[in-house]
Structure formats: C-alpha cells, structure tokens
Amino acid sequence: xxxxxKVATYSGTEPISLSVAKDxxxxxxxxxxxYITELIEVAREIIEKETNTVLVEHEVTEYRRLFPxxxxxxxxxxxxxxxxxxxxxxxxxxxxxASTVTLTQNTDFLVSQYNGVLSxxxxxxxxxxxxxxxxxxxxxxxxxVEPMGKIPLPLKxxxxxxxxxxxxxxxxxxxTKDAVELPLGYRRLISTYKNYFF
Length: 198
Prior knowledge:
198 residues, alpha+beta, 3-stranded antiparallel β-sheet, 4 helices, 25% helix
C-alpha cells in the first residue's frame, strides 16, 4: 500500500458545471459564483479520495516503502481509471547504494487494468529487485490517470449533495438536534463505486 501520495495537477472540465450546480442550489445571482466553483472542486476531490476513482485527469505520484514479496508480486495503484493514450508509468526505486534506479515499462514491469484498477507486475525473473534501500519513500510511481468512460450519474448526484451541504451549512457546527443522514443519501450513492487498494 502507498505510504503517501501527491496529486500534482488535474486537467479537463469538472464533472458538474457552475450552471448545473447553481440550478441544483436554486441560485440565480452571481455573487456566490466563486464560492460555488470552489465547492464543485471540493466535492469532486472528496469523492475521488473516498472511492479511489478519478473523475478528471490527474498526475499522481505514489510513494512506497517495500516491494511485494508474495506472488504474483502485484502493486495496485491507488486511483482507478485508465492511462491516457501514449502515457507510461514512471517507476523508480533507491537501491542499497542509495542510488535511484528507473525501471522501464514493458521491459521491467507490465501495467495491467481490470475494471479500471491499474496494477504493476514484474517481468523477467517475476519478482521485484532485491537491492532495495528501505526508507519511507524508497519507491516512487508516477502516472497520469483519466476517468474510465462516462462518469456515473450516481457520483454526479453525490457531488450535488455535497455541494448543497457545504453551501447551506457554512459552519463546522450545527445547532439542530433532529438532523439525520438520509439512508439513501451521499454514502449510499458512492458505496458501490468504492475501489479498495492494497
């Protein structure tokens, strides 16, 4: 599992436009346009992190401490989606001399995809290098990933619910005692799209 990750940039249009968000919020003026635009990004980022599924194209770098030691030695990447055409994974590790070694896709490792889940497996000896210098960021894996086809409507609806929640409730504290989470609300919408990674 990744020790930590960096999501450097994202590109493309948000899954929900400003006009769609304003229609859902029943907002006709433009005074809150900047705030609502920020809420669209916040909602999308929350759903991406909770489902491990990208909704826009991202550049991601994952850091790991160890190689898998049990066959099939698979490294599963955190974010589900597809690699854009022509893009390759940049895979580096530090050897026991503390030098950075770059592994080559389709020579040292293969990238495979199943139902949007991206994973790496070693080639040649069918195991990862044994000269790893072990520290927190011994291994770095950089890749671009984009959504796999059309974004599911339930995830867009989950975004709308989050946007509405943050727009209506601008404080971290609520003073109503009877508010309850709807059983068919946000969590229900994202539950079947959650991808677990190891």
